[in-house]
Amino acid sequence: MIKKIGVLALVLCLLVAILSPSLAQAQSGLAVIGSSAEAVFPSRLNFSLSAQSDENITDIRLCYVMDRAGFAEVISEVYIEFVPAATVDVGWALEMIKTGGLPPGSSVEYWWKLTDDGGNQLATEPAQVQFDDTRYDWRSLTEGKVTLFWYSGDDAFIQELMAATQADLEGLAEDTGAELERPARLYIYADSGDLQGAMIFPQEWTGGVAFTRYSTMAIGISPENISWGKDAIAHELTHLVIHQITLNPYNDLPTWLDEGLAMRSEGMLGSEFSGSLGEAIAGGSIISVQSLCSPFSAYSGEAILSYAQSHSLVEFLITSYGQSKMFELLTTFKRGSGYDDALEAVYGFDMDELDSLWREYVNDKYQAAVGS
Predict the structure, then answer these.
(1) Which helix (H) or strand (E) holds 235?
(2) What homologous superfamily does CATH list for 136-247?
(3) Looking at domain 2-131, does it have CATH number 2.60.40.10?
(4) pLDDT, tens digit, for every residue of 254-310?
(5) What's the distance, CA 268 to chain centroid?
């Protein structure tokens, strides 16, 4: 069902999202008078506290936890600088320029710890503050584990994107066996300009991004570029799903596998990518699989070839060895295996042998295409 976020709810959280911890008082008289958290999207979270005691309050700490996937709960603790006194008003800002930012819809749990001159201690109950993009009048549509948020375009527009999203999930499961482990949120901005306004360090070419640890995506899609938008959803959704099922504290995926799966989800290679691959094959300028494990070049020509080769490498593995082997490879990476070790365990060859096998495959394919 499509639902509109209530006007009252938006008014209440417009520019600020405040959830106050339960006020507490120690037997000594050490007490919290007031506490609040203010979200100013996308730049900062402002925290404030008022407290009093029978003696000077000497130590105040703010503790907070980001609501994101991880390997253990990471609690950040901030020592607040202030002049000791019996009554204090303090504040602290979590500046997103220092962290790289949070996606829309994320939340932060926080609480305060206080100590006074008599050694009395107090801790407030944990509370949550939502980090919402309140610049727009968001509507939402949920199907299965996916919720789409949008503010521009009619119901037919969002229903078409939801149908494409569900088809992407089905296609990814058929290719790799990978499925969403946690609910996913997709924020659809009206264009890339609106999207970039929600980010701290956007590149001018940014059209979509996956915040994989937060199970959130954000993409700029207008009704006029819905075809491109469907491809962008397929790409970012694949990153999110694959990262969910391979998250581990030991190793990342090789870039060619991560990007190759995302490119394959978009469908056939576009002419720019296939042309680059054909020229590299003909000219003997193919990039090695070892090199494709690292982040791709910032130079557009080499980056295009890297994406095209990654698509072809994944195509080779899936068409030659099947979905079950690809799923086994992903689960092997989840256990933290190295690149060569994972390939050896699943396919019986390392990256150098994969390079040789794939070159033979892609050369045969290229020659067949030229011959036809």
Answers:
(1) helix 226-246
(2) Collagenase ColT, N-terminal domain (3.40.30.160)
(3) yes
(4) 999 999 999 999 999 999 999 999 999 999 999 999 999 999 998 999 999 999 999
(5) 25
